[in-house]
Structure formats: structure tokens, C-alpha cells
TrEMBL record:
InterPro entries from the UniProt entry: PHP_dom (IPR004013), PHP_domain (IPR052018), Pol/His_phosphatase_N (IPR003141), Pol/histidinol_Pase-like (IPR016195)
GO molecular function: 5'-3' DNA exonuclease activity; 5'-3' RNA exonuclease activity
Protein name: PHP domain protein
Family matches, as SMART domains: POLIIIAc (SM00481)
Organism: Lachnoclostridium phytofermentans (strain ATCC 700394 / DSM 18823 / ISDg) (Clostridium phytofermentans)
Length: 287
């Protein structure tokens, strides 16, 4: 059976491997397809496609799916909408994501100012980690704080400095879920709610969220996911059936920023069948 990974990050956002390195790792792990889904950016896709083409010329056929993970605000929570099979050259998509990145940069500078006010020696350049085109997220702040001895690990970084309840945190201006879904649809993509059980919603609240997103054009739910335990996958499958949605699956791979999560296999037992990609492509062909 062929396996895939439809939720993958590179160092263009908060992963630690380049798009080329991710593609080469996917080949090493004998995956049939991966989706590059960096946060609020599509800049890594072109490099990944070149790397996949090079692998094809060497005899390995890796299907490279253009994607993005867009942050949106829902009832003062940050939710993520995956866009799979987007046209990364779509001008409107590029424009909206560029504006989101500019707003993110402004927020990051405010957080840097807050940390500097408490004698933490940090600059925007420090957070790039020699990757000038990267999208800086709070994971980059955490990495800096760990490497410079301010905290021991990610949990302490978010507890003391980066969490919503800290004095250093600065909220972002997000797209609405409706606008995020609309943006993905008009770029020819498939909008999918990422990791639905990570938002700390009750099942009743999650049902309301999925119902609302469905009314905006949501097509899928990320059903197979690294953090699933127990009956989690079954819970999401029930919503898939209830709202006639498609299933997707992904590891949410970030390289060493999430060292327990491996590409394709998550925490060791993740298996995402290629059949899900076939169903997504069938949906696109029948639209």
C-alpha cells in the first residue's frame, strides 16, 4: 500500500528542513505524496517542486501537492485551515498571504519590543536563523529562548513568554474562517480544517464550528493526525459522515522543532493511505 503525508512544514515557515530536504526525506521514507503546507505562505512550493522533479528524473515518482496552512480567528481562538491543491501562482492568493505576512512581521516586532523591555536581548534578525525568507512564528521565538538559555524547553517558553496569557504576547489580526475558505476555493484548492481536536472545544462546540465552516464551503477534515489518541479518529470520522466531508491526514511535520513527529509516520504509528489523495483529486475533477 502507498502512503502519504498531507500536512508538512518547511523552514519557509516554522519547520527546520528546507523544501528540498523535505522532499528528499519523503523519498527516503518511500512516501507516494506529500503536501507542503507552510503557515500563511506558499514560497516553499516552487523549490519543493524542483526537488520532486529531480527525484522523478532519478526514477522516484513523488507527488508534490501545493498547499498552505492559513490562520483564522474563530471566537477569539486561532484555528487553522489547510488549503490543498491550491494554485500557488494565483495573484489574489499571493496578495492576501503577502499582507498576512506583513501583519505578522509587525506583530513579531511588538513581541520583540516587549521581551527587550525585560532585558531579553533579541532582534528580528535573531529569529531568522540564517533563513531570510522564513515566516517567523512563535516557534522561532521559542527556539531562540531555548538556545540562549532563557528557558529549558518549548513548554516553558510558552508558559513564561509566548502564551496568550503572558504580558509579552501580542495578538494578530487574522482572516475570518469564511475569508480563509473563500481564498482557498478561489485559488482552486480544497479547504480542510486542520487538527480539529486541538482547539480545546467541547464536542458540541466543535460540531457548531464544523457546521459553520461547512456553510462557507469547507470540504474536508484532517482525520488522521499525529496527536490522535484513543477514539479521536473515530470522533472526526463521525463529523466527516455527518457533514459529507472528505478525510485527509497529516503528520504536521516540523523537523527538529517537533522532534517526536516523523514525516509520514508521526509519532510512529501514523499511516495515511494514498486513497485519500485519490478521493481529493476525484472531488476536484467533478467540481
Amino acid at each position: 500500500m502507498k502512503y502519504v503525508d498531507l500536512h508538512v512544514h518547511t523552514n519557509v515557515s516554522d519547520g527546520t528542513l528546507t523544501p528540498t530536504e523535505v522532499v528528499n526525506l519523503a523519498v527516503q521514507k518511500k512516501l507516494a505524496a506529500i503536501a507542503i503546507t507552510d503557515h500563511d505562505t506558499i514560497y516553499g512550493i516552487e523549490e519543493a517542486k524542483r526537488a520532486a522533479l529531480a527525484q522523478r528524473e532519478n526514477g522516484y515518482e513523488l507527488e508534490l501537492i501545493s498547499g498552505v496552512e492559513i490562520s483564522a480567528e474563530y471566537k477569539k481562538k486561532d484555528i487553522h485551515i489547510l488549503g490543498l491543491f491550491v494554485n500557488e501562482k494565483d495573484p489574489h492568493l499571493q496578495d492576501i498571504l503577502s499582507k498576512a505576512l506583513k501583519e505578522r512581521d509587525e506583530r513579531n516586532q511588538k513581541m520583540i519590543d516587549n521581551l527587550s523591555a525585560d532585558d531579553i536581548d533579541i532582534t528580528l534578525d535573531d529569529l531568522l536563523f540564517d533563513e531570510p525568507n522564513t515566516v517567523i512564528t512563535r516557534a522561532h521565538f521559542a527556539r531562540f529562548l531555548i538556545e540562549h538559555g532563557y528557558v529549558k524547553d518549548n513548554n516553558e517558553a510558552f508558559l513564561k513568554y509566548l502564551g496568550y496569557d503572558t504580558k509579552y504576547y501580542v495578538p494578530r489580526n487574522y482572516l475570518t474562517p469564511k475569508d480563509a475558505i473563500s481564498l482557498i476555493l478561489q485559488a482552486g484548492g480544497i479547504p480542510v480544517l486542520a487538527h480539529p481536536l486541538l482547539y480545546q472545544l467541547s464536542l458540541e462546540e466543535l460540531n457548531l464550528l464544523i457546521s459553520e465552516l461547512k456553510s462557507y464551503g469547507l470540504v474536508g477534515l484532517e482525520t488522521i493526525y499525529s496527536a490522535n489518541t484513543g477514539f479521536d479518529e473515530g470522533i472526526i470520522r463521525r463529523y466527516v459522515n455527518k457533514y459529507e466531508l472528505l478525510m485527509t491526514g497529516g503528520s504536521d511535520f516540523h523537523g527538529s522543532n517537533k522532534p517526536r513527529i516523523e514525516l509520514g509516520s508521526g509519532m510512529g504509528n501514523l499511516k495515511i493511505p494514498y486513497q485519500l489523495v485519490k478521493e481529493l483529486k476525484c472531488y476536484l475533477n467533478n467540481k
